[in-house]
Amino acid sequence: GTLEEAGNEEDLSFDELPDPNLSLQPGVELSTLDEWIRSGHAVYAEALWDHVTMEEEELAFKAGDVIRVLEASDRDWWWGVVADQEGWFPSSFVRVRNVLSSDTCHRSELKDQMRANVVKEIMSTERIYMKHLKDICEGYIRQCRKHTAMFTPQQLNTIFSNIEDIYKFHRKFLKDLEKKYNKSEPHLSEIGSCFLLQGEGFSIYSEYCNNHPRATAELHRLMKLGRYRHFFEACRLLQQMIDISLAGFLLTPVQKICKYPLQLGELLKYTPEEHRDFKSVSDALDAMKKVARLINERKRRLESIDTIAHWQVTILHWEGEDVLGRSSELIHSGELNCVLRPGKTQQRTAFLFDHQLVFCKKDLLRRDLLHYRGRLDMDHMELRDLLDGRDSDLGACLKHAFKLQDSATGEACILSCRKPEEKQRWLEALREERQRVIEDQEIGMEISEHQRKQAILNARKSKRGNIKICVGCAVPLAHQPLHPLHQRHVTVPTSLPQQRVFSLAEPRRKPFYLWHSLAHYARLRK
């Protein structure tokens, strides 16, 4: 799943969060809270979720609202006020943020106190996370390397990936945070700059997150053997780690990179614009969102290049560099007619990747096979929509057509579709391809040369009669979704064998009755 999905899983990073049943800060008992209210202290809670009223005396609020708690004698339902409205609300929907004496209940002080709480939470979770990284590196990896008979270097690399690099990075990051942390007045801390200073370093999470599914699979395989289960448990006890499985510990980096945008978003909410840390926190939030987006995109692209590599090895008479030399994603595909001159067209199956448009031709005898017939460099092409009617330059009557013209040489390629909706989808796809290239440049999206070569090598090794690829051209465009671009992939069921997949694109032929009768008669004689 994506990083957003991972962030919603059960929290295994052991943050000091409040009891979800009480929604109180750690160490705050329900009786104590009610005593504070009775003694005249002002108790404020922050809404974690929207609350829609069901009864007349219930209090409605939205996530992020600050509620003053007026009564907390009951465990589940409290009485409070927000925006001059009073009523009952479920305690599980809020988190107590402040307990202030009556003479200090000012809005600005309340916001300062809330910012201080967020800063403390960031510092606390970072220290706990550092402890987990240290335990993994010193408690597990160090012991595993001593037992060469049980673990090969390749196995350790698969299970732990680059977590030692992450540990090294976070030691420096935590030192920067400690320097900027104001212990006496936490709300004045200027920790936003730390995220900006180490912004590039967070990209090391990409390798770890991409490898995590393989690590989980390998660890699951080893855990089926008793000697490995006992070994990992012994490592945990020797390091005096909490009672969490190794799989749980290895999930914490994936969850941690998800949490930074959430924590920074909450910090920004309580940072006034005049605060010295406001711009740094705002920029840090954008930077960490970009990191999370880049990690998600790299994970998806690595899956995509394996698909493209398997597709390419099925194409006959391929010429020139591999499609992965410049591209990493299939954006759209389908049938097009290349208009050469009046009355002369060539039917082609076109595959639009980022940076290039590849043309193939179906085999005359075996329609499930494709022959390579050339490509266009989309980085130098200008798209022009053509109106239906006679084209003066070509001297031909065009219908549902568009032109791709090389901005450097002036050479043009005119392509036409069978239906207007097909043309519209191609125009959208071609614009999407340009936008995708720009986005990749902005976020620094790159696939290494080693990863590209490895994908091609694996595809050639596993070349068989069945292919598991994205070949949107194999499905008649009339059966494709109206907006396939929103899906990021144009796909067909991967379980279908190659002959079956491409046969979907072929119209049903009327049976040749004489041949059918002879074949039927031959079976009866046999």
UniProtKB/TrEMBL annotation:
GO terms for biological process: intracellular signal transduction. Coiled coil: none annotated. It holds the Pfam family SOS1_NGEF_PH. It comes from the Eukaryota. Residues 40-99 form the SH3 domain. One of its GO terms (molecular function) is guanyl-nucleotide exchange factor activity. Residues 114-298 form the DH domain. GO terms for cellular component: cytoplasm. PROSITE patterns: DH_1 (PS00741), DH_2 (PS50010), PH_DOMAIN (PS50003), SH3 (PS50002). It is found in: Cytoplasm. Residues 329-435 form the PH domain. Keywords: Cytoplasm, Guanine-nucleotide releasing factor, SH3 domain. Signal peptide: none annotated. This is Spermatosis associated 13. It comes from Scleropages formosus. The gene is SPATA13.
